[in-house]
Amino acid sequence: MSTQHQDTRPETTARVRSVQCRGCGAPLTLHGGGHRILSLSCAYCGTVMDPRHDYAVLAKFSTQQAPFSPFEPGMQGEIHGVLFTIIGMVGWEAQGDVWVDLQLYSETHGYAWLSYERGHVCFVRKTRHLPNALVWNLAPKQSVTDGLRTYRLYERYMATINYVAGELTWVAAVGNRVQIVEAIAPPLLLSGERSSTETEYHLSEYLDPAAVYRAFQVSGQIWPRAGVHAAQPYHGPFKDALSKAAFPFAILSGVLAAALWLFGSGVQIHQETFLPGDLQTGRHSAEIEITRPNRLVALEMETNLDNAWVDFDIDVLKDNEEIFSMGKAFSFYEGRDDEGYWSEGSRSARALFKVPEPGRYRLNIQLADGGTGETGTTPPETTLELSVRQGYISSYYFVILLIITGIATLIGPGARIAFERRRWKAVLDDDDDD
């Protein structure tokens, strides 16, 4: 947020170190603001004086209360290599938010402002590059340009002055109200301030608060930033670097997973059907010739279960000797409710194994347990379609790698999207716009 003020070049002037407040007699330190200073406000009693007419009293605001700010008049610090002195302060409030604008003065670069809001700091100067659209009538996120860059409108609101102290380039009074419109192109914010008498435009640049604290030698507590400022740029170097590094691996693992899915299914060497009676008592399959030892053999199985479950015991035999055994469970349930058709489980499954040497093998398959419905314990009658493929290459590990690298690739963009949602949340919620 910014404020209504003038921005002009300084003129050489003799410096007055201090004067007495015409309201309460308190000594007021002057920090060399030049001939462009139009008002001096007492931080103690709220009296506003005119430095051009022997500090005559312009107004009094005895009820003002000093806002919180880590900066105060008299502090000096460099911004972009230019030494500025804080010479005045204006407190604002709007829509429940409060912020402080600090009048800056440089003997070489004139006047500017340092705007402080909830731990966020912006450097503000007047701009003569005006927006080319009816910025006061735009909706949030609509585009506007000042001839140099394109901004997106952020918000419009009324702001009220609640505190004035020190030297200012304009006559500020507690209770004064201005209409403000803001458009952003982080880290820049273009703002228009409209009062009953004039309209001005200013350009704010978001600064690193910690760097500004160091520049102005702010000591003691460091004030953490609250929320996302309208002009705050996204900063996630580690997440962006992680996403950039993971992207080629995600592409590679995706290509390999797809290739294995298409071409790694192996060669079918056997197909057989087991009837319900065969499964109840257990039965050997016909001989299966496996010519590729130490390569995965895929056992594809398909049942016709309906609202039931079964467990099968499967033994791999060579010369009637067991060389490998495993169990495989199936369950499939379906139905309809108020939301329509639903199903869970699967009628099919896959088992993988290896054999130590080429040769003829058999499978012994028997139904070990089962049930129907939700609580039944009687094994259901089901057929089992069996297909054996050798030379199978699993894409499992490449899929896992794809998932991991895919997540890593999305971390940077995801963090940026979440950051932007936080930036726009209050504005879009208020305007019912997305």
Structure description:
This protein is an alpha+beta fold and 434 residues long. Helix content is 18%, strand content 44%. It has helices at 209-215, 237-263, 276-281, 396-431, and strands at residues 18-20, 27-29, 39-41, 47-50, 56-60, 76-79, 82-94, 97-106, 110-117, 120-126, 143-145, 150-168, 177-185, 188-194, 199-207, 267-274, 283-284, 288-290, 296-303, 308-318, 321-337, 340-346, 348-353, 359-372, 384-392. Strands 7-8-9-10-15-14-13-12 form an eight-stranded antiparallel beta barrel. Strands 17, 18, 20, 21, 22 and 24 form a six-stranded antiparallel beta sheet that branches. Strand 8 (97-106) and strand 9 (110-117) form a beta hairpin. Helix 2 packs across helix 4 (396-431). The longest helix is centred in the C-terminal third of the chain and has 36 residues, at 396-431. It is elongated and about 115 Å long. Mean pLDDT is 87; it is low at 1-14.
> What's the story with the biggest beta sheet?
8 strands, antiparallel, barrel
Low-confidence stretches: 1-14
Overall mean confidence score, pLDDT: 87
Side-by-side strand order of the widest sheet? 7-8-9-10-15-14-13-12
Overall spatial form: elongated
Tally of DSSP helical segments: 4
SS class: alpha+beta
Number of domains: 2
- Determine the strand fraction and express it as a percent band: 35-45%
Into which percent range does the helicity of residues fall? Answer: 10-25%
Q: What is the count of β-strands?
A: 25
Sketch the topology as an H/E string, one letter per element.
EEEEEEEEEEEEEEEHHEHEEEEEEEEEH
